[in-house]
Amino acid sequence: MLYSKVTPSQKRKAMRQALKPGAAAQFPGAFNPLSARLIESKGFDGVYISGAVLANELGLPDVGLTTLTEVAQRAGQIARMTDLPALVDADTGFGEPMNVARTVQELEHAGLAGCHIEDQFNPKRCGHLDGKNMVDLETATKRIRAAADARADEDFLVMARTDLRAVEGLDAAIDRAKALVDAGADAIFPEAMASLDEFEAVCRAVDVPVLANMTEFGKSELFTRQQLADAGIAMVIYPVTLLRAALGAAERVLEDIQANGSQNASVQDMMTRKDLYGLVDYEAYNQWDTGIFNFAVPGLDIESNASSLAD
Questions:
Q1: Is 267 exposed, middle or buried (0-12, 13-18, 19+ CB in 10 A)?
Q2: Residue 94 located in a structural domain
Q3: Which listed residue (116, 151, 176, 244) is catalytic?
Q4: Which of 56, 191, 244, 282 is flagged as catalytic?
Q5: Catalytic: which of 40, 91, 163, 198?
Q6: Beta carbons of 75 and 88 less than 8 angstroms apart
Q7: 161 is an active site residue
Q8: Is 91 a catalytic residue?
């Protein structure tokens, strides 16, 4: 009921324990707090919070338009709704190294288990688009060093993302990944790898966990969890999958209403009211204090509700 009783510190420890080479821990992307609870209910390892999703939720493209305040607030709302650890996309850190330090502290205080910071210029581009502009090695390592130094909880995960593969090739991306680890990165996110062999090469080159981004319509093939595990990957994210699925379903329902004058044909594909109420733990609120929350929950135990109200 209400929010998770698992502390941020416990979630951070759990995420670090999960990130082992070859574990391929699965972190689907949540697009709102309730979807984070759905991810948890299906038994996944953790929750990912995509910068693209946070921007798209506001009706904006993923080009660095969101602010630290917006990201920290929404990411915190999502993280507190689940017992799972949540990793958030912090883009380029929202400024210079001092801003990066503040970013880490804000996200830490918001209850996140970790974040990743990338090596693009701001405004940045989606990692699977062409025409990305990269900062130099000194700037990239300063960001990561500032992030690592700023955290109060040593278990808060600082992940470094490099987009250099698409601009200068795999060898350059691996060299940068090594430098980012030397600067204090706890894990590496090599963006837009072209093959399993490339993922495996990065895993061999660094002695920290490596993340694989399995986003649809991107430059990486949608490999299976087992394929990625065999390559040595520690974490797999599906950043925009649920948002795309939800918007696709919403679009079809709207078209159904337009075409048929009713949503009746689409009801069979919707989550039922009973399942939705179960996901938000409606009955627990009712049982908590019937003197205040004295409502019956349709589709649940009516006799139990009636008895509690009589008391």
A1: exposed
A2: yes
A3: 116
A4: 191
A5: 91
A6: yes
A7: yes
A8: yes
Q: What is the pTM of this model?
A: 0.91
Determine whether 191 is an active site residue: yes
CA angle 90, 93, 95 (to 5 degrees): 145
The answer on pLDDT for 164 being more than 70 is yes
pLDDT tens by residue, 24-54: 999 999 999 999 999 999 999 999 999 999 9
The amino acid at 19: L
Q: Which of the residues 40, 45, 89, 198 is marked catalytic?
A: 89
Q: d(Cα 308, Cα 15) in Å, to the nearest integer?
A: 40
Q: Which residue has the higher pLDDT, 167 or 295?
A: 167
- Name, in order, each residue with C-beta under 8 angstroms of 116's C-beta and a sequence gap of 6 or more: 87, 88, 89, 90, 159, 160, 161, 187, 189, 211
pLDDT confidence of residue 138: 97
Q: 175 with 215, same domain?
A: yes
Quick: pLDDT tens for 66-87.
999 999 999 999 999 999 999 9
The whole-number average pLDDT for the span 209-216 is 97
Residue 130 sits in the same domain as residue 276: no
Active site residue 119: no
Residue 269 is a catalytic residue: no
Claim to verify: residue 304 and residue 192 sit in the same structural domain: no
What is the reported pLDDT for 219? 82
| 62 assigned to active site | yes
Catalytic-residue membership of 48: yes
Sorted by sequence, the CB contacts under 8 Å of residue 226 that are 6+ apart come out as: 24
Catalytic residue, chosen from 126, 143, 155, 186, is 126
118 is catalytic: yes
Catalytic residue, chosen from 62, 155, 163, 186, is 62
Does one domain contain both 286 and 232?
no
Residue 69: domain span: 8-239
Q: Are residues 14 and 105 in the same domain?
A: yes
Active site residue 83: no
Look at the block and give the residue holding tokens 């581009």: 125
